[in-house]
Amino acid sequence: MKFSINDFLLSLSTALDFLEMDLFRHVTYHNKRVAYICDRIGEALDFSDDDRFDLTTCALLHDSGVAAYQFDVKTRASAEGPKGHCRHSQDILDQFPLLSSRETVLLYHHEYADGSGYFGLTEQHIPLFSAIIGFADQLDLMYTKSKEEIKQYVISNRGLKFPGWIVDIWLPIAATASYWLDMDHNFISIVLPQRLPKRYLELSWEDIHSISQIFSSIIDKKSTFTARHSRGLSEKAEHMASFYGFDADRKTKFVIAADLHDLGKLAIPNAILDKPDKLTPEEFEIIKTHTYYTRFALDSINYFEDITRWASHHHEKLTGSGYPFGIKTLGLEERLMTVLDIYQALTEERPYRSGLTHSQTMDILYKMTAQNEIDLKLVQDVDATLGAVGLQ
Fold this sequence. Notes:
Layout: E1 2-4, H1 5-24, H2 30-44, H3 49-60, H4 66-75, H5 83-95, H6 128-140, H7 147-156, H8 164-174, H9 177-182, H10 188-195, E2 200-202, H11 205-220, H12 229-243, H13 248-260, H14 270-273, H15 281-287, H16 290-298, H17 305-312, H18 332-346, H19 358-370, H20 376-389
Antiparallel strand pairs: 1-2
């Protein structure tokens, strides 16, 4: 199918923006503004459309390692330090199948012209894309300051943090009113898609699955206690899709939905995800928002209508008592995703309990069927099928 890479990247960058809700308690559109600044500089440098696309893609993904870095800091006393964020982001970029080779772009995006960055590279040794993304990243961290404060910050760091040539290119861009207006919260999500070079590729659902797996790993690294949740659900989704005789495309789409079902959990604070005690009613209300964010992130991707529905309805119940939409009429894939998600969650270790056995998990699922919350036939099939193969 002719697939819009732009739609996919922008939607997934929206999910990465959700991480800001944990860090800053609101969305700052940081990834999108960094990509916008990079694109303006790339345009001023007369980059080809291919190079502009690669540059903005790298910029949109420059904080993709943040979730993994937080995970490491929380679970390993010997944390990697600030270099870890760069390494994790580069690892993710290296897996991304749609770019030219950009081997060290994100690894070195926190280098400074004077060599005071994380890896000590000086101006002449910093890769071009790394220098542009690093400049844009630092610049956007000043976003709440006045225009004059930002300009003075850039000028005062010429040759220190920032290569002189970037400063000289940026200052004329910053002299235009449209530059500042474009980055406003009200406009950036509209302006950036209009600017980006359009990229369409003939991709199969298997090709798209190779990308969704990357984001599945980002989601799972948000919390110690969900370190295999999306991957485990995807394995079970694939197994049950085969059991029900889904054709190849339907099966792969169902697995992609499993990969991405918890995309919205990037917006949920780790203090809630990792809490060792029972959640307060207020905390549970925050948890309930994650499927809404999943839908919001995926809704604008062409051809993803089924995937979006299957992914974002995995906490709905047949009684209409689920969340966040309170839907009663659910298709097979939605009902199956719900059962599998509950199964996967119950068999995993949590901060407040150990993972349950297959038998213990099925007892809970059957109790839920008695209350007409989930589909009895699907629960019976999961019991027989997953119990037989020991897929837990």
